[in-house]
Amino acid sequence: MLIRNEKCDFCGTCVAVCPTDSLILSENDLIIDHDTCTKCGLCVKMCPMNALEIKDEN
Amino acid sequence: MKTNWDVIVIGGGPGGLCAALETARTGKTVILFEKDRELGMPVRCAEGVSRSEMKKYFGKYPKSWVSKDVNTFTFVSPHRKEVSLKSNLYSGFTLDRREFECGIGRLASDEGAKIVTKADVRKILFNEEGNACGVSVLICGEEKEYRASVIIAADGVESRMGKQIGINTTLAPQDIESCVQVTVGNIDVNQEALYLYVGMCYAPGGYIWIFPKGNRTANIGLGINGKFLDGKKFAKDYLEEFMEEFYPDASVLRYVAGGVPVANTLKDLAGKNMLLVGDAGRMVSPISGGGISDAVMSGFEAGKIACAICDKPQKSKDLMAKYEKIIAKKNSRPHEGLYKIKKAVYDFTDDEFNHIADEILKVDIKKRNFLSLFKVALSNQPSMLKVAIKAFAGI
Predict the structure, then answer these.
(1) How far apart are CA B214 and CA B68, in angstroms?
(2) What is the pLDDT along chain B (395 residues), one digit of tens a residue?
(3) How many CB atoms lie under 10 A from the CB of residue B59?
(4) With an 8 Å Cβ cutoff, are A50 and B236 in contact?
């Protein structure tokens, strides 16, 4: 599951690269659609702040 | 607040604000929705602009828009040699983007534009003909609907609005720079020049910039191209290393992250009575990452076209095509050459960057310009040389 940590600066880089439009940025929150997210990991690499990770669903 | 307008603008950056200004002064009703709480902030931008571009669009702009005048570009090679380019053509300044955007906001408001902040546009609304006819906005937790004849999408790097009319705005890794920037105090840098550190050792697929802001302050930031991001090292790590080595005593006044498109401009920029402006249309220069003047230019053009569509809705398809033609001429085609050069530069090693610096330093400073720089850089790739000459013709 894709999760965001406290390093997030709400810059929207992740939104720009998401191939499934699964990310929405409000002024102070990153909304993740876990149903459409394919966990491709692009957002994780592109994030300037290392604020995203894909964790095991255990 | 009324719900029916001639034009709705999504996004209150330079592009959206100029679209609203143009629409209002042409006499149409326009409402602009900005997601953040204030215009201009946070400043996710190095703030460098050319004086001639600013004069062209704004005439006599207020002094408050200027942080620091600059007259030189200085490139720094991996082996730390400085290569300066200086001429009247490179005259520019660092903006104070908060003043700049609030300034344009005031101009637009005085002409009758309505600006709403803390207003997050989530959805485009469509009519029976399948054309965009309004938006659904989240304002203080409540969803509200607004209608208009034309929608201008100036929603920046995220560019989610374009997706809703079927335009693929998603950026591939090689078409985005993952960036961080600090605005720092207590530093002694040359306040007359824009510094760019170029090399794999500094910022793979990008560069580190030091843009002076006056009073012993500067914007120091970098962009790493997505092609070089492996999930182990991030833009913030590269900047922290640079600051630790070069400016350990600097005080951080601001710290922001951001994504900069370095793509070819989208081929599709309009449809269903909606127009894309600025970063949302990927109009940023692929080689410098600068996009303010492109956003301003396209904002003004979109405003003109939107007003024409309001006057002649039956001609909307022709007018949207006209918008795309204007942008192709002023932006997309000039950027195609720069995009090819950008891709060639990704393959340069630090030894090659050092060699280029050594060669350029042999050229008299009065004869140095961007074209001569790229002539040297691409001298062993004759096909790319042609691209460079075409791209830099006239500079």
Answers:
(1) 5
(2) 899 999 999 999 999 999 999 999 999 999 999 999 999 999 999 999 999 999 999 999 999 999 999 999 999 999 999 999 886 667 899 999 999 999 999 999 999 999 999 999 999 999 999 999 999 999 988 999 999 999 999 999 999 999 999 999 999 999 999 999 999 999 999 999 999 999 999 999 999 999 999 999 999 999 999 999 999 999 999 999 999 999 999 999 999 999 999 999 999 999 999 999 999 999 999 999 999 999 999 999 999 999 999 999 999 999 999 999 999 999 999 999 999 999 999 999 999 999 999 999 998 888 888 888 888 888 877 778 778 777 776 55
(3) 7
(4) yes
ipTM: 0.97
Task: Indicate if the alpha-carbon torsion angle B164, B166, B169, B172 is positive or negative.
Answer: positive
Q: Distance between CA atoms of B308 and B330, rounded to whole angstroms?
A: 20
The pair of structure tokens assigned to A25 is: 């940025």
Gap between the Cα atoms of B335 and B328, Å rounded:
9
Amino acid, single-letter form, for residue B117: T
- How many cross-chain Cβ pairs, A to B, lie less than 8 Å apart? 89
Chain A residues close to B160, C-beta within 8 Å: 15, 21, 24
What span, in angstroms and rounded, lies between the C-alpha atoms of B161 and B371? 37
Distance between CA atoms of residues B308 and B326, nearest Å: 14
Task: Give the span between the Cα atoms of B208 and B164, in whole angstroms.
Answer: 35
Rounded CA-CA distance B207/B332 in Å is 23
Residues 6+ apart with CB under 8 A from B10: B16, B32, B33, B121, B135, B151, B152, B153, B154, B155, B161
CA atoms within 13 A on the CB side of B327: 34
* Chain A CB contacts of B180 below 8 Å: 48-49
With vertex at residue B339, the alpha carbon angle to CA B207 and CA B265, rounded to the nearest 5 degrees, is: 110
Residue A50 distance to chain B (closest CA, Å): 6
Q: b/e map of A36-48 (b: 16 or more CB within 10 Å)?
A: ebeeeebbbbbbb
